[in-house]
Every structure is written in C-alpha cells, then in structure tokens.
Specification:
The protein has helices spanning 7-16, 28-40, 51-57, 59-73, 87-95, 110-126, 160-167, 195-204, 220-228, 241-249, 259-275, 282-305, and strands at residues 20-24, 45-50, 77-84, 100-103, 130-135, 140-142, 145-147, 171-174, 210-212, 252-257. The chain has a single domain, classed as Aldolase class I (TIM Barrel, Alpha-Beta Barrel), CATH 3.20.20. The radius of gyration is 19 Å and the shape is globular. Helix 9 runs parallel beside helix 11. An eight-stranded parallel beta barrel has the order 1-2-3-4-5-8-9-10, surrounded by ten helices. It is built from twelve helices and ten strands. It is an alpha/beta fold. The structure holds glyceraldehyde-3-phosphate, 1,3-dihydroxyacetonephosphate and zinc ion (ZN). The site of 1,3-dihydroxyacetonephosphate has 14 residues, from strand 3, strand 10 and helix 11.
C-alpha cells in the first residue's frame, strides 16, 4: 500500500457524510498507537507533522517511522504538514515525501494569504501533492505562536469562494470557534461553535472539503487521571463530541486532533509511574501509553468521526 494523498479520502468523506481523522505525530509510540487503531477499524488515515514535531524528531525519523507503520499495517496513509508557515517549509516537506501540506497564511491580510497559498499550490500540484489553506484565525497555541482571543477571528464566508478560486487549494480550514490546546472554552460557559458559518461556507463551496482544527474533546477522564497523579490542569475544556459528529456530517471532511493524544499519553504515564515509582524502564510506561492512544483513536474513528470501515 502506498503513502497516498488526501484527495480521494476527502472526496469520499464529503460524499459519505463522515470525516477523516488527522492526528499529530511526534514519536514511534504515537505513530504505532494511531496506525494500529486505524488498521483494526479499517479507517482511512491522515498523519500530520507540525514544524515543532519535525524539529523534535527530525523529518527523516518521522517519515521512516510512518513508512514502517504503513509496511506493518498495510494501511494507506496520507502524510501531511500541519500549519506550514512559509513556502520554504512546504517545499522541504513536499521534496521530502509528504503527500499533503497545509500552508497557513491566516495571519496575513487576505491578498497576501492568497499569494502565498497560490505559490505553494503551484509547487505542490506539479508534484501531485494536495494543499490545505486557512481563512480565519483560531485562538490558542501552536508551536511557540500564541494567538490570543482578541487576535482570533471567525472565517468570513464572503471571502471563501474568491480564496478557493484564486489559490486552487484542495481543502480549506475555517475558524468557527474551536481553538488549539486544552483550554478551549471559558469555565462555566456552554461551549458553542458557529455552525451557521460552516453552513454558509458549505453553501458557497458545494462539494468542497472543509477542515476543522482545534478539535480535541479534552476528555475529563484524562484530565482527572493527570490531576490525580500530580498534574495541574484545572478548567481544561474541549469540543463536545456531539458537535464534532455534527461537523463531520456536514462539509467538514478532516478533523485535527493532537491535544487528546497528548492527554491520553500523559495520563497513562503519570498514573503508571505514580503507582510503580520503582520502575525506570521506558518500555514499561510507554507501552501502556501507546495502548491508551490506540484505544482513544479507535473511539474517535468509530464513535466520533464515523470513518471506521470506510477504507
Ligand atoms: O496545531 C497545533 C498542533 O497541536 C501541533 O502542536 O506545534 O506543538 O507540535 P505543536
Ligand atoms: P487540538 O489542540 O484541539 O488537538 O488541535 C490540533 C490541531 O488543530 C492541529 O492542527
Ligand atoms: Zn491546527
């Protein structure tokens, strides 16, 4: 099975009313947990790599680990650059074997975002690679960039047709109220997303795949497990799963999840080491962490994204 682009996956997801999980990867255990879950549930899969992940693990290690996962499971995998911030990083990832890249020009004025995105699309499409663009800004933390609530902004549906037309992107990330990280909504407030914006974007771009970032649910059981074992994560709140199911049944075809993986892994490691303080073999705590990631991803694929069995 080859490493594949996202084009067919997203098209089928749009038609089928489900979403593909795009999971962030940083090391071997995370890659194994996710790919084993996808293989066992026969789910199409996007593994995404941030600039921070490339810096931490190195491009070549992640690429080889993903190739190994693909050889081990027989799963077709799309390898995607998450939040590429320049033409150069997109080019490096395309040249280095990624089959999909995101160029995130959302911090630039509209015209500048269009020009940068179009430049990446031209390079990528010539090489058979798909491109995700972004319009509107999510709040939260990615790498070292912290976008405050005041700087964030919802996507303006009036801009989407021109953006897609002028850039030639294959999918579009929009901002409807999700944010990156574990603290997405104010404590005591009911989480809300602007489904009206999603609906209007979908109306203006019929058949076109939309991407939802910042889509971790921040499951209370993980936060509790972390806090019970020495962690301090008060007021962590994520996107309710029923909202993700609704988005997946609409035009959202790719749903990005990173924070939930981090929580599953950390909860497992904290609890293991707290219960067995005499242990010092990394395999002893990384093994259960990998199992926990696998269980979490299976749950997402089957019960939230609806993509299990869609391979
Ligand atoms: O959107 C951001 C992802 O959670 C990646 O996070 O940049 O810390 O690797 P990172
Ligand atoms: P979360 O922080 O909600 O997992 O979002 C991840 C993401 O959007 C990666 O691009
Ligand atoms: Zn993101």
């Amino acid at each position: 099975m080859p490493i594949v682009t996202s084009r067919e996956m997203l098209k089928k997801a749009y038609e089928g009313g489900y979403a593909i999980g795009a999971f962030n990867v940083n090391n071997m255990e995370i890659i194994q947990g996710i790919t084993e879950a996808a293989a066992e549930t026969r789910s199409p899969l996007i593994l995404q790599v941030s600039a921070g992940a490339r810096k931490y693990a190195k491009h070549v290690y992640l690429m080889k680990l993903i190739e190994a996962a693909e050889a081990d499971t027989g799963l077709p995998i799309c390898v995607h650059l998450d939040h590429g911030e320049s033409f150069e990083i997109c080019k490096t990832c395309i040249d280095g074997g990624f089959t999909s890249v995101m160029i995130d020009g959302s911090k630039y004025p509209f015209e500048e975002n269009i020009n940068l995105t179009r430049q990446v699309v031209e390079y990528a499409h010539d090489r058979g690679v798909t491109v995700e663009g972004e319009l509107g800004r999510l709040a939260g933390i990615e790498d070292d960039i912290n976008v405050s609530d005041e700087e964030s902004s919802y996507t303006n549906p009036d801009q989407v047709e021109e953006f897609v037309e002028a850039t030639g992107v294959d999918s579009l990330a929009i901002a409807i109220g999700t944010s990156h990280g574990a603290y997405k909504f104010k404590p005591g407030h009911k989480p809300q997303l602007r489904f009206d914006i999603l609906e209007e974007v979908a109306r203006r771009l019929p058949g076109f795949p939309i991407v939802l970032h910042g889509a971790s649910s921040v499951m209370p059981e993980y936060v509790e497990m972390i806090n019970k074992n020495g962690g301090k994560m008060p007021d962590a709140i994520g996107v309710p799963e029923d909202m993700l199911r609704k988005a997946a049944s609409m035009a959202v075809c790719k749903i990005n999840i990173d924070t939930d993986l981090r929580l599953a892994m950390t909860a497992s490691i904290r609890s293991y080491l707290n219960e067995r303080p005499e242990d010092f073999d990394p395999r002893k705590y990384l093994g259960p962490a990998r199992d926990n990631i696998k269980e979490l991803v299976k749950h997402k694929l089957i019960n939230v994204l609806g993509c299990a069995g869609k391979l």
